[in-house]
Amino acid sequence: MQPARERASVDTRLPLANFGGEADAWLEPMLADFLSLACNVCNAPFGMMTQLHGDIGLQHPFVSVVNGRGDVRNQWWRFAGQNGVSRSAVDFSLCEAAVRRGRNLTEISDLQSDLHFGESELATSMPHVRFYAAVPLVAENGDALGTLCVMDRTARNLSAAERDGLQKLGRQLEAQLESRRTMQKLEQQTLTDSLTAIGNRRSFDLRLREEWTRHLRNARPLSMLMVDVDYFKQYNDTFGHPAGDALLTQLARVLRSPLRASDFLARYGGDEFSLILPDTDEIGAMQVADRIKQAVARVKWPHTEIEISLGAATVTPSEMCDFHALLGAADKAMYERKHGRAKNNS
Fold first, then answer.
1. Helical H runs in the chain?
2. Per residue in 144-153, pLDDT tens?
3. Which conformational region is residue 270 in: left (phi greater than 0), alpha (psi within -120 to 50 degrees), or beta?
4. How many alpha carbons fall within 13 Å on the CB side of residue 1?
């Protein structure tokens, strides 16, 4: 008889699309190994890992609305003969039920005759699953990360040794994912300003280099805004440093409000903030600047009203310069505005 893991053929596989980018590539080699081991241990032709609720650090996850909330939904599949893994979002009902069972293994010998899941997409369409077994993946804090699954197109059961092997692989995969989550949290802390909870100078430098590379590759305009608070030293001297910290924290929230998801805000240093605006020309940058000024003017600030100085700079694909020149131009524009206001007030 032909071994089970050799029965899957390329033309009968589930249509897959790999939407993972470079930022998510850390996960794929690890999952390819775990799914290959799971299939070998259980003599199964294909396997899958699902991500359900827990954050595992993907920059580009699939998100769906479940029970009225947005939940991360990802699947990584590995079929016999496949190199690596591929990502999809097909049918999560089985894995959702499996992960509710705590750490207990879920095993369905013939899915197509199952009363609860016989009409599920996995059973009725590609890859036409009959046998299904899954181990829940649970983080240390109780987050239901997802499941590690093996499947077959033939009805069957796992042996005791296969069940034990699949559960042990699940615990190892949990540990790997938890280690990655911990590392990313620590890394995020080094890139976040502790006072305002936005990016710090280090994260700004990293993001600016990324956006500059994208600007050159895609030949799209790139803009930057620099913002600082006028007379901030006097504000601190008059109302105290805790009041100054509260002002900066509130200003960070105000600056973030008119931005797109692709824009980036960081505390550049002291009372200076930096905004990176990808795919934004000079007109678009001025529109963002106007929205920020209006947002600041609408806020009822504690103690006294504040004013900000804001400088903008844009580089187009036809201009020959580097990101240091862009940063310098935005910084210069901000200080010219600040000094111009100071002269007018003197």
1. 27-42, 93-99, 121-124, 160-190, 201-218, 232-239, 241-256, 282-298, 323-345
2. 889 999 999 9
3. left
4. 4
Q: Which amino acid is at 199?
A: G
DSSP letters, 125-190, are STT---EEEEEEEE-TT--EEEEEEEEESS-----HHHHHHHHHHHHHHHHHHHHHHHHHHHHHHH
Output the six-digit token pair for 35.
Answer: 């799914």
Answer yes or no: pTM beyond 0.70.
no
Dist. CA 149–CA 105, nearest whole Å: 10
Q: Which residue has the tokens 């036409």?
A: 128
Q: Cβ distance 311 to 332 under 8 Å?
A: yes
Query: What is the b/e burial string over 141-156, where b = at least 16 CB atoms within 10 angstroms of the residue's CB?
Result: eebbbbbbbbbbbeeb
Residues facing 225 on adjacent strands: 275, 312
Residue 230 has φ and ψ, to the nearest 5°, of -70, 135
- One-letter amino acid for residue 220 of the chain: R
**Do the Cβ atoms of 95 and 52 come closer than 8 Å?**
yes
CA distances from 248 to 22, 237, 267, 304, 325 (A): 34, 15, 9, 14, 27
3-state secondary structure of 277: strand
* Interval 196-227: pLDDT, tens: 999 999 999 989 988 998 888 888 999 999 99
Residue environment code for 254-271, b if the CB has 16+ CB neighbours within 10 A, otherwise e: ebbebbeeebbbbbbeeb
